[in-house]
C-alpha cells in the first residue's frame, strides 16, 4: 500500500469550508471531475461559460489551484469521465498542472489509480515523461509511493528501469522508502543495484533505513558489498545500527571488515559500542588483529573499546592524547613516513573527529601515498566544517587533480552531487593555473 493522501474533496473542505454553496464554481467543477460526475461537469461548465465559448472549450480550460478536470479525474474518476474528457473534449493527456508540474498520469499514480494509469497510457500519455523539476519519471513516482502493481505495469509497458532522477534510480527510491516487493520487482526487471550515477547506492540506503529484508534482496540481486572507502563502507553502517543479520549477509557476500570509517574505527569496534556481543563474535574471525589491542580476543576487543569510550569522557585525557598523537604524526610526516603518519592522525581523529587540521594533514598523507580518493574524501569532509579555510580548498583541488590524472576520476566524480562536482572542478582548474603560472 502506498503513502496516504488527503482526498481532494476533503482538502477543499479544509481550505474552503464544508458548505459547498460558498465554494467558487471552479472549485465545484474540479470536485465534480474528481468524483467522475460528467453531468455535473457539464452543468457547472455551462455556468462558467460567460463568453459563449461552448461547454467543451470551457471544460478544457477551467482550472482551480493549478489543476484542470483531467488532473482531478485521475484521482478516482470513472471511465465515463475519462472518455468524455479525453475522447470527446480532447484534453491534453500530457499537460502538467501549474502547481506541482504533475501530468494527469502522474496524478493517477500518486493516487494509486491503476485503471486510470492504464487508460491514460493507452490513450497517448508519454510513458517516458520526466517532471521538469527533479527529472522524476512515472516509475519513480510509483516506486516512491509504494504502488507495486503500477510499477509492474509500467515496466511491462517499457519504462526505463534505470532512469535517473536528481535523487537516484527508482531502485534507490524503493530501497530508502521501505518497499521490499518493489525492490524485488525492479531487480527482476534487471535494475542495476550498482548504478554509479547515484550519490548513494540502494544497498547503502537500505542499511540506512535498517531494512534487512531489502539488504538481502539487493545482495541477491548483485549489489556490490566490497566498498573499500569510508564513503561506501556498508559493514560500518550495519555495525553502527546493530543489524546482526545484515552483518552476516554482508560478510557472506564478501564485504571487507578491515576497512575503517573516516575516523579509523573498524566495524568490530562499532559493534562493541552499538551492537551486541553476537555482532562482535560474528565479525571477530574475519577481522585482522588491531595493534593497539593487547588481548586479541572477543573479550579483549570489548574491554579495549569500552576503555576507549570511558577515556573519551575525560576531556583532559583526550586533549593530552590528541596532542601527543599529532606530535608523533607530524614527526613521522617530516621523515616522509606517510603510512605511520596517516595511522597516527587516524588514531587522533578517533578521539576528536572534528579537528580539521588532523583531517587536512591526513588528506596530504593519502595524497603522498597515491590514494587520491581518500585524500579527496578527507579534504571534502574538512571543507564542510571549515568552508572558508584556504588550505582545505587547496587540499581538495590537489586531490581532484590527482584523480583526474588517473583512473579514479571517472569513479568518484559521477557520484558527487552536481553542485559539489562543479565547485570542485572549478577549484582544480584554479589550482592548475597556479601550478602552471
TrEMBL record:
<keyword id="KW-0040">ANK repeat</keyword>
<feature type="repeat" description="ANK">
    <location>
        <begin position="100"/>
        <end position="132"/>
    </location>
</feature>
<dbReference type="InterPro" id="IPR036770">
    <property type="entry name" value="Ankyrin_rpt-contain_sf"/>
</dbReference>
<dbReference type="InterPro" id="IPR051616">
    <property type="entry name" value="Cul2-RING_E3_ligase_SR"/>
</dbReference>
<feature type="domain" description="Serine/threonine-protein kinase BSK1-like TPR repeats">
    <location>
        <begin position="322"/>
        <end position="396"/>
    </location>
</feature>
<feature type="repeat" description="ANK">
    <location>
        <begin position="134"/>
        <end position="166"/>
    </location>
</feature>
<protein>
    <recommendedName>
        <fullName>Serine/threonine-protein kinase BSK1-like TPR repeats domain-containing protein</fullName>
    </recommendedName>
</protein>
<dbReference type="Pfam" id="PF25575">
    <property type="entry name" value="TPR_BSK1_C"/>
</dbReference>
<dbReference type="InterPro" id="IPR011990">
    <property type="entry name" value="TPR-like_helical_dom_sf"/>
</dbReference>
<dbReference type="Pfam" id="PF12796">
    <property type="entry name" value="Ank_2"/>
</dbReference>
<dbReference type="InterPro" id="IPR058209">
    <property type="entry name" value="TPR_BSK1_C"/>
</dbReference>
<dbReference type="InterPro" id="IPR002110">
    <property type="entry name" value="Ankyrin_rpt"/>
</dbReference>
